[in-house]
Amino acid sequence: MGAGSITSGYVPMGAAIWSKEVHETITDGPATFMHAYTNSGHASGAAVGLRNLQIFEDENLVANAAARGDQLLSGLQRLKENPHIGNVRGLGFMCGFDVLKDPETDEAFLAEDEMGAKLLKAC
Predict the structure, then answer these.
(1) Are 90 and 69 in contact (CB under 8 A)?
(2) Is residue 86 part of a domain?
């Protein structure tokens, strides 16, 4: 997890999250687990991170992002009108769609079709 996640990029802050199984392997293992994060454990970063979480709660940002994500995905459904667009999917602001030569058969474009370059130019 990087600074953008914890402090919204206001100050550097690093963290790591792992499963209980990994934690037990590290703590119960035969050797000492040494780690270091350049920006971990700093009081200023921790204070900003806590305040950032409070803002997320106070301003209902998670629910708002979910609603805006639904709005985005709904708008992207119009891409299906294009004969080369297959599945349109998403969760929150992470959305994607398939660009296919034939969406009915899932036939992909060939590299020599240079569809990536054509899409980039169109965008």
Answers:
(1) yes
(2) yes
DSSP result, 92-107? TTEEEEEE-SBTTTTB
Structural domain boundaries, residue 95: 72-122
Convert the pLDDT of each residue in 27-73 to its tens digit.
Answer: 887 777 766 666 666 788 888 889 988 999 999 999 999 999 999 99
* Verdict on whether the full-model pTM lies above 0.90: no
Same domain, 54 and 76: no
Backbone angles phi, psi at 80, to 5 degrees: -65, -15
Round the CA-based radius of gyration of the chain to a whole number and report it.
22
The residues, any chain, with a CB within 8 Å of residue 45's CB and separated by 6 or more, are: 3, 6, 7, 11, 12, 13, 39
**By the 8 A CB rule, do 32 and 38 touch?**
no
Number of domains in the chain: 2
Amino acid at 28: D
38 phi/psi in degrees, rounded to 5: -55, -40
Closest residue by Cα to residue 56 from 23, 8, 9: 8
Q: Is residue 77 part of a domain?
A: yes
